[in-house]
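sorry for the late reply, my laptop died twice this morning and i had to redo everyting from scratch. anyway the thing you sent over, i finally got around to it. pasting the sequence first so we're on the same page, its 353 residues, then the predicted structure underneath. double check i copied it right bc i was rushing
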Amino acid sequence: MDCLVCHDRTGTYEKAPAGCGDEKKGLDLVKIARGVGRPTRANCGSCHFCGGGGDAIKHGNLSEALIDPPRELDVHMGGLDFACQDCHTTNGHRIAGASMTTCVSEGRVSCTDCHDERPHATDRHAVQKTLNDHCDAIACETCHIPQFAKAKPTLLFWNWALAGRDTKELENSPYCITTQHRKKGLFIKKANVAPAYAWYNGRHERYRMGERVDVTGTTYLNPPAGGIQDPKAKISPFKIHTGVQPADAAFQYLLIPKLWGGYWEHFDWERAIRSGMKEAELPYSGKSIFVTTVMHWRLNHGVVPKEQALGCMDCHGVKALVDFEALGYPEDPAAAGGRFGPGSDSPKERKGP
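ok and here's the structure:
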């Protein structure tokens, strides 16, 4: 990172791929330096929109469409022309925000930084009070981000075990793209995806290098913390990314193959794994297998206008979007009552254990 990444307003500053942070050759750095200014959505997006190797690949709710979005895509950036730093406030170049995949956190960003904890005006309709009661157990984003990857498909499945085969499109439609890629294996990208829902109290677990994985099942790399009995947890929306990646058959931890200057040149997994593990300073047994992993990506951007938010029957109807049993409820809480007692989802009114 350098100053120009965030402050270039010419739109011409670029980094060299695999250049260890060096700028691309041939840039007019004098012109770029004379054109600096406050960061725009395009500045922030030059990294965050294209994480994971391409536009919208990693973050299902971030894409280059947010540089100039319509209101229907994001009511804050499109309807109100918010800059990223309007929510991600800064102090001494410390930009508020927290990652679910690393330990990076420079301050939490929450809807309640601007909105009341019970934001629905009760003088308009009796339903509004019920919606406010829901705020005790449901994150704002759950109702107000009914879909993600609305502008461009995002990556949902990545199978490294199928790398090494010829690159080809297996399926291509506006809503689902399946690609076999020689360097990276099988991709499945989708658009207009309904979120997965899980309890989340603002904390999460995180897989660390060398930890054991489930070699016969699924390993969750960064699952959100919290549960139905946690008063700090709320039902929150996530993008679920499923991967198939190499692990050590004997030591049962994830392997770290050398890709750039390694596998992507010779397409030999064993050679790439030995090189990568040597650099990672972890022992390799000599036997590799492929295991299934899951990552949770929190959804915060792409808030729709209130007219497009989820309604009561979207969650409590016959075709409910929310699996209440999976979240720990005996049945739909509209019938059984909230987690802290009949007719309530507030910790202060909790009854029973």
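Residues 346-353 have pLDDT under 50 and may be disordered.
thats about all i looked at so far, will dig more tmrw
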